[in-house]
Amino acid sequence: MRLSRDDPGLPLYHNENNRNQTLRRIRTRARFWFAQRSTGVKIGLLFLIGFLLFGLLKICSNAITTDVHQMAVPNQNQDPIIINEQIIGGKPENPKEDDERVNDDMAVEMDNRQSDAENSPAHKQAHRATGKSVKFNGPDNERQKAVVKAFQHAWLGYKKYAWGHDTLKPVSKSYSDWFDTGLTIVDGLDTALIMGLEEEAAEATEWIQNKLTFEKDRMVNFFECTIRVLGGMMSAFYLTGNEMFLEKSVDLGDRLLSAFKSPSPIPFSDVNLLKRTGTNPQWGSDSSLSEVTTVQLEYRAISRASGNSTYEDLSFNVSQHIHKIGCDHEGLCGMFINANTGTFKKGATITFGARSDSYYEYLFKQWIQTGKTIDWLKDDYGKAMAAMEKHLYRNSEPNKMFFIGELLSGETYSPKMDHLVCFIAGTLSQGSQNGFPRKHMDMAEKIGETCHNMYDNPTGLGPEIAHFNMIPGKEDLYVKPLDAHCLLRPEAIEGWFYLYRFTGNKKYQEWGWAAFQAIEKYARISTGGYSSISNVKKINVQYRDSMESFLLGETFKYLYLLLGDDQTVLPLDKWVFTTEGHPLPIYDH
Ligand code: DMJ
C-alpha cells in the first residue's frame, strides 16, 4: 500500500522499530476510520464491544467458581478400601497381596479407573453439588396438608416408642430392630425434607450425625440396607448438601462392600457390618436377582459424590455380568443367581414380583441416571418388556383386567400378581416418556388400573397378592386368605404418581386420595403411628403391629407428590427415584 502525507497510517517517528510502527499505523487508521462514522454506527459499535467484554468476563468468573466448588469435598480417593485386611478398592499399597477374589488385574483396573475418576466430569459434577440444597415450599393444598399430618403422626409414634430403633410397633407401643440402624429415621428423612418439615428433618439429622453407628456385630441384608439406609442418606446428601451424610454413606458403603467378597461378580446376600464379612442367605445358597441388581443407583451416587469409583465399579460389574451371561426367556431372568458360581439357578420362577421386580426397574433407571449413555441397559430393558408382554401380560375374565403373571419353574403360567408388581406402571410410563413405544404407556395405564382394582375391598386397601381369573364367567380377581394382608406398601401409589405426572389425568389423584383415606381409617393407631393389617377384606381390622419404614420413605412421599398442585417438584429429567423412593441426581453420563 502506498503511504501519502494525509494517510492516517503514515509513520511520524522514524526511530521506532518496524513492529511498533505497524501497531501505531493500525491504531491511527482505526481512530481515523472511527471518526469518519456516523453517531448511530459509533454507538452501535461501542455497545457491541461492551457486550463482548461482558461475555468474556462471565466465562472467566464461571471457571473460577467451578474450581472453588471442586475443592469443597475432600478427595476420598487417597485411602484404599480395606475389608478384612483385604484391599478390595481404592489405591492398594501392594496389589500383589490381594486375595483370590480380587486378582491383580482387577486391582490395577480399579486403580486406573479411580485416578480416571478423579479427573472425570462426573467427579467434577458431584463436587459442584456439595453445599447446595434443594428448596421445598411445603404443602400447597388441603390434601397435601393431610398427608403431611399423617407423616407427622407416624413420626410422633416412632419418636415416642421407638426412637433410634428400626421400626415402630404401634399397637404394643414398642419397637423392633432388624439392622439396628434407626431405619425409620434414615428412610423417612428425605420425605420430611420434601414436605418442608424442618423440625423433623433437624431431629433426624442430629440423630444420624451423633448416634448412628455401623459398628454392629449383626448380619444385615445387603440389598435392604443399601436401598433403605444408604439410599436414604445419599438422597439427604444431595437434597441438603450436608457432607456428613456422604461421610456416613462412605462408612456404611465400605462395610457393605463385603458382600462382594464372593468368588464371582455376584455379591453375597448378607453382610456382617462389624466383621465385614459376606455370606449366602440363611435359607439357601442363592442370592435373589432383584437384590443383587438393585444397589447400582445408590453406589453410583456415592462414587460420583466421593470421587472413589470402587462402589460404582463393583456394583455395575453385577449388571454387566448378567448382561453378559444373558437371561433365558428372551430377556426375562430366573429369580435366583448363585454368588459362588455367578450362574442362574436352572428352572427358577420368572416373575415381576418378589425377588425379581427391581432388576427390570434398575435396567431402566440406570440408563436414565447415566444420562441415557449406556445403550445396552436400554436394549436389555426394551427386550425384557417385549418378552414380558409376550409371556406374562394377560387379561382376566370377564372384565379384561390386564395383569402380569408368573412362569412357575420358568414354564408354567400362573395368573398371580404381587402388589409389588404395581411399580411397573411407573417404570413403563416413564419409559414411554423417554423414547420407548406408546404401547408402554398403554400397558402402564392398564396395570395402574388393575392395581386400583386390587384396592376394591371393604377397607379400600390393597392385598399383598392377587390371583386373576382367566376363565369366562367368574370374578376377575380373588385374594387368598393368606395373601390378604397389607403392609401399606407404596407400589400402586408410586405407579399413579408417575401416571399423573405424564398424563395429567386427575383420576390418579383421586385413586391416591382414596387409598390415603383408607390408610387413615383402617391403619391409623390413635397413640401414634400406623399399623400393617391382616386382612384387607375385613373392616373389623386385625393389626399386625408393625409400621414398615417404607411407609415414611415411600408411601407417604409418593402420596404427597401425587396430590400436589405443583407437579414440577423434583422434575423427572433431573432426578431419578431409587427403588425405595429416594431421589438422586441424574448425571450426563
Ligand atoms: C421397598 O422396600 C422397595 O420398593 C423394594 O424395591 C421392594 N418393595 C419395598 C416396599 O414395598
UniProtKB/TrEMBL annotation:
The GO annotation for biological process reads:
carbohydrate metabolic process; ERAD pathway
Gene Ontology MF term list: calcium ion binding; mannosyl-oligosaccharide 1,2-alpha-mannosidase activity
Q: Which UniProt keywords apply?
A: Calcium, Disulfide bond, Endoplasmic reticulum, Glycosidase, Hydrolase, Membrane, Metal-binding, Signal-anchor, Transmembrane, Transmembrane helix
Spell out the reaction equation it catalyses: N(4)-(alpha-D-Man-(1->2)-alpha-D-Man-(1->2)-alpha-D-Man-(1->3)-[alpha-D-Man-(1->2)-alpha-D-Man-(1->3)-[alpha-D-Man-(1->2)-alpha-D-Man-(1->6)]-alpha-D-Man-(1->6)]-beta-D-Man-(1->4)-beta-D-GlcNAc-(1->4)-beta-D-GlcNAc)-L-asparaginyl-[protein] (N-glucan mannose isomer 9A1,2,3B1,2,3) + 4 H2O = N(4)-(alpha-D-Man-(1->3)-[alpha-D-Man-(1->3)-[alpha-D-Man-(1->6)]-alpha-D-Man-(1->6)]-beta-D-Man-(1->4)-beta-D-GlcNAc-(1->4)-beta-D-GlcNAc)-L-asparaginyl-[protein] (N-glucan mannose isomer 5A1,2) + 4 beta-D-mannose; N(4)-(alpha-D-Man-(1->2)-alpha-D-Man-(1->2)-alpha-D-Man-(1->3)-[alpha-D-Man-(1->3)-[alpha-D-Man-(1->2)-alpha-D-Man-(1->6)]-alpha-D-Man-(1->6)]-beta-D-Man-(1->4)-beta-D-GlcNAc-(1->4)-beta-D-GlcNAc)-L-asparaginyl-[protein] (N-glucan mannose isomer 8A1,2,3B1,3) + 3 H2O = N(4)-(alpha-D-Man-(1->3)-[alpha-D-Man-(1->3)-[alpha-D-Man-(1->6)]-alpha-D-Man-(1->6)]-beta-D-Man-(1->4)-beta-D-GlcNAc-(1->4)-beta-D-GlcNAc)-L-asparaginyl-[protein] (N-glucan mannose isomer 5A1,2) + 3 beta-D-mannose
Q: Which residues are Ca(2+)-binding? A: T579
Keyword Ribosomal protein belongs to the record: no
Q: In what pathway does it function? A: Protein modification; protein glycosylation
Keyword Hydrolase (UniProt): yes
Cellular component per GO? Answer: endoplasmic reticulum; endoplasmic reticulum membrane; membrane
Region: Disordered, residue numbers: 111-138
| Cofactor(s) the protein needs | Ca(2+)
Just give the chief location class.
endoplasmic reticulum
Pfam families (UniProt xref): Glyco_hydro_47
Q: Please report which protein family the annotation says this sequence is part of.
A: Belongs to the glycosyl hydrolase 47 family.
PANTHER family on file: ENDOPLASMIC RETICULUM MANNOSYL-OLIGOSACCHARIDE 1,2-ALPHA-MANNOSIDASE, MANNOSYL-OLIGOSACCHARIDE ALPHA-1,2-MANNOSIDASE-RELATED
- State what protein this is by name: alpha-1,2-Mannosidase
